[in-house]
Each structure stands twice: as C-alpha cells, then as structure tokens.
Amino acid sequence: MPSSQKTERRRIGLLGGSFNPPHQGHREISLAALERMGLDAVWWLVTPGNPLKDPKIYAAYEDRLRLARVVANHPDIVVSDFERRRGLQYTAETLDALQAINPNAAFVWLMGADGLANFHRWKDWRHIAETVPIAVFNRPGHSNDALVSEAAKELGVFRIDPEDAMSLSETDPPVWVFFADTENPLSSTAIRSRKISHSLTIDRPDDLIAPCGALAFFLDLHPDLGDFRADVIEGLSLPQKTISPKYFYDDAGSKLFDQITGLDEYYPTRTEKKVFLENAAEITAAIGPRAAIFEYGSGSSEKIEWLVNGLKEPAAYVAMDISRDHLLENASAIAEVLPIPVAAICADFHSPIELPKSVLPPADHWLGYFPGSTLGNMTLSAAKSFLERASATLGPGAQFLIGVDLVKDKAVLEAAYNDARGVTAAFNMNLLARMKSELGAKLNIDDFEHYAFYNDIEDRIEMHLRAKRATVIEVDGEPYGFVPGETLHTENSHKFTLEKLKALVNQTPWRLEKSWTDEKAWFGACLLSNS
C-alpha cells in the first residue's frame, strides 16, 4: 500500500473578485497562470462584495456564482463561494483561512494590473504580500499605473523575471512577477457600463463542481437545515415537549461534544476505535478488493485512514455531511493524506442520494461506512428507512460497515451521559442558551436541569431538560408552561443486541454478514451486505 503522506504540494492560483460579471478576461488570466507557473488549479473566489466599491452595483450573488462556472468551463478552474461561507470580507483574512485548512497547498495570488495599481489601498496589503507569492497580469492602459504604484515601488526588490515564473509558487514571499504581454481588454466595469446582462441563470439539477480544490468533486444537494424557531415552537406545543438533537451542534455545542468524547465515563468513542483497529485485518479482508467508500457523516482523517490503508486496491472515498463548511474543511484535509481520490456530498442522510457517475475511478462495489453509533439516535422506523435509502444509494452488491452501541450494565450507560464534570449537562443545557440568544426566547436557564436515564423498556438512553420548578419558556410572545418535573425531550440513544440489530436489518435489503466486538461486548462493528 502506498504511503498516506504526500510530499508534493499542490500549487493553487487564487483569483479573487466580485466577478460582476465574470468574463473571458478572468478565464484567460487563469489559463495563463496554469501554463506559465505550472499550477495544478486556479480557484475563483467570488466575494459577496468589495469594500472599495459601491454595493449597489452588484448583481445577485447566486447569479454571479453560476455565471462564473459557465465562463470558467475548465476542469482546473474551480469556482468557490468560500468567502461567503466563511463570512470573510478582506483578502488578508481569506488567505489566512485558506492556509489554515490547506497546509499542504502552495498558493499564488493572481491579479490584474489595475489591482496592483490600487493594491496599497487593500486592508493589510503588506500582510498579503508577506503571505503568498503574487502574479500580476497586464491590462491595457494599466501597466504604467501599476508599476509606479506605491505597492510596486515598495515591493520592487522582490520582483522576479517572468522567465522564472515556474518557481514562483515555491518561493518564499514576498515575491511577485509581472506578465507584460497579457492584455485582454475586457473588464467587469466596462461590461457593466455597456449594460451587458450579468444576470444569466443556469438551470442545474444540483451543484456538482468537479474538481473542487483537493477534491475530485463536490456535490451540494442543499439539505434542509431545519428552522430552529419553527421547530422549537412546534416541539414546545406537543404533550411531551421535544426538540430535535440536530440543534445541539452550534459552535459551542460542537466544542462541548468534542470534550464529551474524551471523558473517562464516555466509553463509545474509544471503545469503537479499539474494535475497529484490533479487528482491522479481518474487517478489510471481509470487505474485499477495489471497494469505493461512502461515509455517512464526515469525520476526521484518523477515522478513515485505517480502513483505506487496510483495504486492497481501494478505489475512492466520498464523504457526506449536512454541514457544508464542516464537510469541505474535513474532506479537503482528508484528501491531503489519503492515497486515493476523495470527493464530498453535502446532504442529509435522511434524504435520497444519487452518487455522480463517471467522475471517480471504477470500483468493484461500494462500501457504506457509518461509524459513531448514530444509528442509535434514530427511531427504529427511521433507522429502517435510512437503511433502505442507503441500499438504493450504494447500489446492488454493496456492503455497509456500521458501528452500534450495545446493551450493557445500566450504571455504565447512565454514567456515560451524566459525567462528573458536567460536560454532557452543559451540552444539553446549551439548547436553552441557543433559544435565548438566537430566538430571543424569554426563559430562566436556572429553572432547568440536565436529566439523562436508561429506559429499560425501549433499550435507550433518554436525555431531557427537566423543570426544577414551575416555569415558562416564551417564544414570540407565546408562553409554554412547565410544571415541576416536566421535561423537554432532547435526544434518544438506542442500544442494541446483535439479535435486535439483525431483526432490524432483516426488514431491509441488507443482511448481517459479520460482527466484531470488544472483550466486554460493549460496542459492535457490523458488516452488512445487500447482495
């Protein structure tokens, strides 16, 4: 198996701007950059707005983004909405963010001569020059202004000859090159002044972008992220007040959950890891050669490397997650360490997913991968529907490797959800903080307490927020009263026996092929097949 460590850095040109509208000049600069500097790709960073320009001049962002993809029309030019997704306005901030999540990329900033003429007006322009190499492309009427500009004079000693441009991406900044022979007269400003339409709408069944930076492709199915306000109001109106656990995971909640996985009482994470790693050889042998992997819920590279490195001739890895930002950052990082093509699909695993065809190398079969015991967070009917959809997604002859938390001593289970440090309690209570900060809800957080217990009848841990006294949660002026001891149900975590799992699986196209557990039989890794 080849090493999972890549030594060669990907050379990426970055062309930022409003693309209002995008035009052939942008494309010609990008093609010249690919050829003259030996770049692997050029990323167009479509900004929501330039702080130096009047916001009234901009066409709708989605129109600019779609039209840019039409104009680019090249497999090595990737159109990105990174700045919008990250809420970034200034190039210096964008470069810092891109380098943080792409440590193995060698970036080059691309700009026209008119950009260099005004470069000294950019926020933290010296930081930009000290962060990445810069390539400047001439534009008619701008070369003189550019080369006598404040920035060009200050950086003059760091300018290299165009004949040395192939080494630019690997030269420590500050360093820049000026290409005097690129003189496409087009400009977005000139196009706007001629009133050429820039609101072209392209009908697309989805947003398939191939390639996408380090990824073989990125497919955005625009999953429904839910309406927090509507779901809170609906949940508080039920006889058993409830709220979906998906609202746990704002920034604060995600950080708290990361802490939970390392707690002494919280056995699932470390026990699952032990089961997978200690049985890796048997698991990968049972999967067989030339499998393409589809992971439900994008995790860290550590969670997938053992599987890819243990398989014989793996074909590809596709990560799926509902959170677009989380997915792109994780999948891009994973692409830097796996020796196979990596792709990503933004989707909800409760919705149908169709894998793009003819983009990835051919595989003998697909392997679904669903670690983390998330199956247990679903109702049994929802789990059955999920397994049926997964079979349709992965196709005939597929396999599915899942992690399941097994039934065990009640004291162990309850301790895992009632840790001594109170991290799980803070994770649960964060839902109330979100209601106050995001919905303007009127409530007293101190009127509630974390309440988690094992329901023997349903074989599940239940998490609730329990009222310590009579209290009210008011949303949009509507009060929802709680009597002492009444709860807001926040999560279920079903625990399985292998027999119970087999009974569930048998109601779907899947069959349980093999299973592996730790010595205490606390956690199971189960391999399903639909052939």
Description:
The structure is a single chain. 33% of the residues lie in helices and 23% in strands. It is of the alpha/beta class. A 9-stranded mixed β-sheet has the order 8-9-12-11-10-13-14-21-20, sandwiched between helices. Strand 17 (471-475) and strand 18 form a beta hairpin. Helix 4 (91-101) packs parallel to helix 6 and helix 11 runs antiparallel to helix 18 (423-439).
User: Whole-Å distance between the termini?
Assistant: 28 Å
Shape label: globular
Q: What is the averaged pLDDT score? A: 87
Number of strands: 21
Strand content: 15-25%
Structural class: alpha/beta
Number of helices, counting only DSSP H or I runs of 4 residues or more:
19
- Return residue spans where pLDDT drops below 50 for at least 5 consecutive residues: 1-7, 184-206
CA radius of gyration is: 27 Å
- How would a textbook summarize the main sheet? 9 strands, mixed
What is the strand arrangement across the widest sheet? 8-9-12-11-10-13-14-21-20
Helix content: 25-40%
Pfam family, one: CTP_transf_like
Family: Belongs to the NadD family.
GO molecular function: L-histidine N(alpha)-methyltransferase activity
Pathway: Cofactor biosynthesis; NAD(+) biosynthesis; deamido-NAD(+) from nicotinate D-ribonucleotide: step 1/1
Relevant terms:
seven-stranded parallel sheet, alpha/beta, nine-stranded mixed sheet, 19 helices, 531 residues, single chain
Topology summary:
Elements lengths: L9 E8 L6 H13 L4 E6 L14 H12 L4 E4 L1 H5 L4 H11 L3 E8 H5 L7 H7 L2 E4 L5 H5 L2 H5 L4 E2 L15 E4 L8 H6 L13 E3 L8 E3 L7 H9 L14 H10 L7 H11 L1 H8 L3 E6 L4 H10 L5 E6 L2 H12 L6 E5 L18 E6 L9 H15 L4 E7 L4 H7 L6 H17 L8 E8 L4 E8 L3 E5 L2 E5 L4 E8 L3 H8 L5 E7 L5 E7 L2
Parallel strand pairs: 1-2, 1-4, 2-3, 4-5, 5-7, 6-7, 9-12, 10-11, 10-13, 11-12, 13-14
Antiparallel strand pairs: 8-9, 14-21, 15-16, 16-19, 17-18, 20-21
